[in-house]
């Protein structure tokens, strides 16, 4: 049985200001660093991590740096686990985005919004495709007794959960949430190919 644990990064300055981060190098807040430290303690207590796959964005890298104070495992930084590239909208307040550009609001235009790309950015469908593709290659290449930690972002985790639950993309984004440094655990049965969601959006350690 393979265990895959996907976690979100710690709180950033832009999380606190409710700004669209995209690929911006937003720094962790003091709270975010504390969350990452508490996450490291929880991971050490609950898992024997063999390796770490991480988004290469600054906030994920900073979270990994703190986790490595607790978890002794090699790290590979990969673009597949990055948050959505929101292009020209990076830095906009979240509420202003929905007001000024309703064509990108899932609540307003539904699935059509999921296919729209911000200028120089990605659509939600684009992100789901790259995340699911990397998830499937990870399952194919992992050892049957391995525990893998994935350090990523709220968007990719929700899109992965939506894929596994067979949710449409609107439900995936609007009806699921991920707290900072949340833990999501998956058990993979290699004989049957079944994936069981053991827990999701667990922030009880923070």
Describe this protein's structure:
The chain is of the alpha/beta class and 206 residues long. The chain has nine helices and six strands. A six-stranded mixed beta sheet has the order 3-2-4-1-5-6, sandwiched between helices. A hairpin with a 6-residue loop joins strand 5 and strand 6. Helix 2 packs across helix 3 and helix 7 crosses helix 8. The protein starts with a strand and ends with a strand. 36% of the residues are buried.
Mean pLDDT: 95
Biggest pleated sheet? 6 strands, mixed
Overall spatial form: globular
The spatial strand order of the largest sheet comes to: 3-2-4-1-5-6
Give unreliable regions as ranges: none
Distance linking N and C termini: 28 Å
What is Rg? Answer: 16 Å
Order of helices and strands: EHHEHEHHHHEHHEE
Number of helices: 9
Q: In total, how many beta strands?
A: 6
Helicity, as a percent range: 40-55%
Structural class: alpha/beta
Strand content: 15-25%
In short, what is this structure?
The protein is an alpha/beta fold. Helix content is 41%, strand content 17%.
Search tags:
alpha/beta, 206 residues, six-stranded mixed beta sheet, globular, single chain
Topology:
Blueprint: E1 2-8, H1 13-17, H2 30-46, E2 51-55, H3 58-67, E3 75-78, H4 94-100, H5 106-109, H6 111-115, H7 124-141, E4 147-152, H8 154-165, H9 169-174, E5 183-188, E6 195-202
Parallel strand pairs: 1-4, 2-3, 2-4
Antiparallel strand pairs: 1-5, 5-6
Helix pairs in contact: 2-3, 7-8
């Amino acid at each position: 049985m393979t265990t895959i644990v996907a976690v979100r990064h710690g709180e950033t300055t832009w999380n606190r200001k409710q700004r669209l981060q995209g690929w911006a190098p937003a720094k962790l807040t003091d709270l975010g660093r504390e969350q990452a430290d508490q996450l490291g303690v929880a991971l050490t207590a609950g898992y024997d991590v063999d390796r770490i796959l991480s988004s290469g964005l600054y906030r994920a890298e900073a979270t990994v740096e703190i986790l490595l104070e607790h978890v002794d495992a090699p790290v590979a930084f990969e673009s597949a686990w990055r948050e959505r590239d929101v292009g020209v909208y990076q830095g906009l307040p979240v509420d202003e985005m929905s007001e000024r550009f309703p064509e990108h609001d899932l609540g307003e235009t539904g699935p059509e919004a999921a296919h729209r790309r911000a200028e120089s950015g990605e659509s939600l469908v684009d992100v789901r495709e790259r995340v699911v593709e990397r998830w499937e290659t990870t399952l194919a290449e992992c050892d049957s007794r391995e525990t893998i930690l994935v350090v990523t972002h709220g968007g990719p985790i929700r899109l992965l959960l939506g894929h596994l639950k067979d949710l449409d993309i609107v439900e995936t984004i609007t009806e699921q949430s991920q707290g900072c440094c949340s833990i999501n655990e998956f058990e993979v049965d290699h004989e049957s190919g079944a994936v069981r969601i053991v827990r999701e959006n667990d922030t009880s350690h923070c």
